[in-house]
Write a structure and sequence with these properties.
With about 160 residues, this protein is an alpha/beta fold. It has six helices and four strands. It has a single domain, classed as Response regulator (Rossmann fold), CATH 3.40.50.
Amino acid sequence: MKKINVLFICHGNICRSPMAEFMFVDMVNKKGLSDKFYIDSCSTSREQIGEDTHYGTRRKLNEMGVPMYPRAARQLTKADYKKYDYIIAMDDLNIRNIKRIISDDPEGKIYTLLQFAGLSRGIADPWYTGNFDETYDDISLGLDGFMKYLEEKYKF
């Protein structure tokens, strides 16, 4: 089986999408599935390109014992559409901006994270709300649903 390529996306790639990336990497590692995945994150904007993870995200992930690694924010490219199997946005505004960059989703790869938890709302941006706890809880909810979806689909 080829690796399942997962890309998490938010506006600046310093708060929500790296939080989802690190949390999903941790989840996959704890399940012994790291050889089955390639996991990354990026932004729809150019505002934070090159910056590492936001201190609020780092603080919350440290508090929860989620390992992190140095990274630099980058923007989504058209080539990412071909590379990734799942392109997972944090909210509907991200979806609109993703479609501006890649133009269309003929293979049905684009989702919002909370869709996997049966919810139609987005995950609030802690850059504006300051509430990294709420963001962590919402991402946990979405990732749990996403993993259940993957376990059913790929039978692991």
